[in-house]
Amino acid sequence: MKGIVIKYSDENINTDLIIPARYLNKSEPEYLAEHCFEDFDYKFKEKREKLNATILIAGKNFGSGSSREHAPIAIKASGIDCVIAPTFARIFFRNSINIGLTLIEFDGIENLKDGDVLEIDFDTGSLKNISINQIFEIKKIPKFLQDIIASEGLVNYAKNLLRE
Amino acid sequence: MPSTITEKILAAHCDKKEVSPGDFILANLDGCLGNDITAPIAIKEFYKVIHGTKKGVFDRDKIILLPDHFTPNKDVASAIQCQVLKEFSKKYQLTHYYEVGRCGIEHCFIPEQGLIVPGDLFIGADSHTCTYGAIGAFSTGVGSTDLGVSMALGKTWLKVPETIKFVYSGKLKNWVLGKDLILYTIGQIGVDGATYKAMEFTGVVIKNISMASRFTICNMAIEAGGKNGIIESDEKTIEYIEKRTSRPLKVYKSDKNAEFSEIIEFDCDKIEPQVAFPHLPENSKPISEAEGMEISIDQAVIGSCTNGRLEDLRIAAKVLKNQKVNSHVRCIIIPGTPQIFLNALKEGLIEIFLNAGGIVSPPTCGPCLGGHMGILGAGEKAISTTNRNFMGRMGHVESEVYLSNPAIAAASAIEGNICSPESVLKN
What b/e sequence results for A37-49 when a residue is b if at least 16 CB atoms lie within 10 Å of its CB, and e otherwise? Predict the structure, then answer.
């Protein structure tokens, strides 16, 4: 996977900040994307488009709070394919895996900044910051979760189970 | 191998003799839950899973759909989401679908109705599903896709968590409730202090507190990032649950030499009632410190899946009896279920609230997540017995939420400032 970075160093960016509850009366991805990060940084959309970013970098405990799947849906529909943070809140983590939004746990986010171009190799567990020509190690994804990701999300994984 | 309660319940639900932290399992479910916000997406995903097969839901008795968040419907879009739940429930003849009037706030309602028993494995597409650990069940919050898949398979994937053991010793001070213990705990370990982990609450204090306080404690395990909260079942648990269901229960206890990732002990003699300041539940301070800061409030909310039980309303009524809510404060009381509402009415609590100038709402999550029935304007401050005080959680992004127990919320409503019930009752 290859892409450009948009970064917020803040810790504990919660699901209310990702998608405020006032927009949970609908669940269409495009609608949710319109309001993604609205109360956190209302210029997110504009900033992401300007950078042409597809990789979001954030501080620890990203996605804490409610179980709303609307949060990873909103992020994905905003054009983000991958979120990198030191740690993720657990429901957000499983929701993202389940819908096919890639998450990477990585301690060294200080080495990444807005506009950096990254190349991620999941097989070797490496993250290359092409802009500064540095390679970092990332946590490998457990086999069980890789199988869900390989099925392109939990729904397909479950389909196979149901037909067994 | 010696195991914790959490490990034992998980092993029993995937036909294994034992499981270890870090193992991934496909666990059989005793029940699953969705609400008006999370179920519409789950239902969409459910149909994708069963598409092309002749299958339906895995068990019509084990799926609970409760429209409780934006109900009674706050707008057209919310009404449409609720219609999705109703149609699905009709189509698959779900036993546990509850309309407004019979529906309560899910985490008050499900234990009250005996829909979960000790030893169960339960998931809910709502983060506060961890509440039912209070009756010795493994229960955890998941997302909509998880729920959709579970409704088809009757199974869910789980990673076996490590367990942190919390030991509460000593004697509780006046006005200290389960809410204060959990706010204090989160204050000590932080909002990610238990991320991915089970939180097992033990000690003489946990033995002695009420079921309501135990529900409150487990309810907020998620606010420390926990996967589940859990309390060993005892006589109190059995007494609570036996009259509500005929289902067999299974009591699990952690083995003496079970492995905990950490053991954290608290001396409760030193714990005052707590107030969690904006914008994180970990920002807890003792009431003596908070009171000195003279924080004026515009609204007090007493209710929610955290503190909407009868005992909570009794405590609020004890403080509000023969008192008046400050003329510039809105005091909103939300009984968690119709049954709690009715009991509060019979006990005269509702009359106390109304005489004091408070107002009583139908059971709903409403203001807790900034949905409806008590939204804050710019710069407004609320004291609330709910569970989250994130930025903009109860309304305008520039509003503030302070979390507390029901006694402090009631006292603050009277004074108009955040204060201890002692300050109100001595006047």
Answer: bbbbbeebbeebe
